[in-house]
Design brief:
463 residues; alpha/beta; 7-stranded mixed beta sheet; 15 helices; 39% helix
Length: 463
């Protein structure tokens, strides 16, 4: 193993949080061999009841260490503690969902005897693990995303190598350690922090890999997909620029509360964060007054304090990027309603922009920062057209008291899910979670991920 270490620092104040070994290619290749050997020895596959037992023990250990896991999320990822506590609870529930899924999974009977050639035959299927899984994860939910990828692989019966984001590897290592403590053999789950991108790419594109699970930026995800070994399946989860539509019947108080949470949760560093809000011009002034007031009430700062609402961005370079995009939008004609400045070196004020140019970066790209763009409209079909104008399609939302408006938006918005009277970032972990177009490939969610990591194997019996 390479002797170099990845040092992990707090994004808020750069405190030293620890370190983790970075692995060179020979070390990573050895781990792949270890995983492949475990999979190829079918006599040693972990039966379903034992996988259930391991995952049940893991949930108990996670509950025991709930506060510690949440604080780790806040320290290394910058997510406010109040939200990190929720993430930890979700992660525990995600492991439970994996248990429920494999306890009830089943193949099916294939009706083959409808033809004379199969008159004396019967056919049925069972689910088997697909093979070695490599999971590459993101920083913004450093425990729950790992659960979605790793607990799903363990539940499916696949050996998994997980590469966490370099910013947040400690939460991943903590979860892997808990799986080992719960009785999972080491070959079936290995935390793999690579020495550099070249080693990471070699890991992902190795022919020993049967399934690649990726959560991260579209440029990296689509690029890696193009280099996968023949036969390697994959799922990709990228970001978007989530649109929200408000019409003239919207309830402003409940709407603003939801949009504030959806737009500024984790400083906007969520793939389905509220980014583009289309507001009917009849209510735009009232909406902006209430939204500005609510955004100004958010406490920005130390993510380890329970009263903090908005923590730091993950890296100083991201603060600088967001600030440059905001300044560009203002130069190109956007009105700054509130925010628009850094707070210290790592935080950015919750920011609202009114009517940025369609060509501005904030209108064209995923901001991944605490910035919400508000656009006025007169025709809801025009709002939908503008909402659909980008090469991303993930979750969207509409706030209305009219069923016909809700259903019209549901039908015409390019999205894999449309929330009615809630923000675009709403999610529970058994929901299908799918980025369309450039936003991803495949369907996330515990049950869907487990199914992706399995094959349906048919047995045909002659009688």
């Amino acid at each position: 193993m390479s002797s170099s270490l990845l040092k992990v620092n707090s994004p808020y104040n750069q405190d030293d949080l620890g370190s983790i070994a970075k692995m060179d290619w020979p070390t990573v290749s050895e781990k792949l061999d270890h995983a492949l050997a475990a999979f190829q020895n079918r006599q040693q596959w972990i039966p379903v009841h034992e996988r259930v037992g391991i995952l049940e023990r893991t949930t108990r250990l996670m509950m025991k260490h709930h506060a510690k896991l949440a604080l780790q999320i806040a320290k290394e990822g910058g997510k406010p503690l109040k939200d990190a506590l929720v993430e930890t609870t979700r992660a525990i529930d995600g492991v439970r969902l994996a248990i429920e899924t494999i306890r009830t999974e089943a193949g099916h009977v294939v009706p083959v005897n409808g033809t004379m050639a199969a008159a004396n035959k019967m056919a049925m299927t069972q689910l088997e693990p697909i093979g070695v899984v490599v999971a590459v994860s993101a920083f913004n939910h450093p425990l729950n995303l790992i659960v979605h990828q790793v607990a799903s692989a363990v539940a499916a019966g696949c050996p998994v190598l997980v590469k966490p984001a370099n910013d947040t590897p400690l939460s991943c290592q903590n979860f892997v350690d808990l799986l080992m403590e719960a009785g999972l053999p080491e070959a079936w789950c290995q935390c793999t922090v690579t020495q550099d991108r070249a080693v990471a790419e070699a890991l992902v594109t190795d022919p020993r890999v049967s399934f690649f699970s990726f959560i991260g930026s579209p440029g990296v995800g689509w690029g890696l997909r193009s280099k996968l070994a023949p036969g390697t399946r994959c799922s990709l989860e990228h970001g978007g620029a989530a649109p929200v539509i408000l019409n003239d019947s919207s309830n402003l108080q409940t709407t603003v509360e939801a949009i504030t949470k959806g737009g500024f949760y984790h400083a906007g560093q969520v793939c389905v964060s509220v980014q583009r809000v289309y507001v009917h011009e009849a209510i735009s002034n009232d909406f902006l007054d209430v939204f500005k007031e609510r955004a100004g009430q958010l406490k920005v700062g130390d993510p380890t304090l329970i009263e903090t609402d908005v923590g730091p961005l993950i890296r100083k370079a991201e603060v600088e990027r967001v600030d440059s995009w905001v300044k560009e939008a203002i130069e190109q004609g956007a009105d700054l309603i509130c925010g628009g400045s850094t707070t210290g070196e790592q935080c950015y004020e919750p920011t609202i922009l009114l009517n940025p140019s369609a060509e501005s970066s904030v209108s064209q790209k995923e901001i991944f920062g605490p910035v919400v763009c508000v656009y006025t409209y007169t025709s809801i079909d025009d709002a939908i057209k503008r909402a659909n104008s980008l090469p991303f399609a993930f979750q969207a939302a509409v706030f209305t008291t009219k069923l016909e408006t809700a259903m019209h938006c549901y039908k015409h918005l390019n999205a894999s899910a449309v929330m009615v009277n809630d923000h675009s970032a709403f999610r529970v972990d058994n929901m299908p979670f799918a980025g369309l177009k450039q936003s991803g490939l495949g369907v996330g969610g515990i049950q869907h991920t487990i199914r992706d990591m399995q094959i349906e194997k048919m047995l045909v019996l002659s009688m």
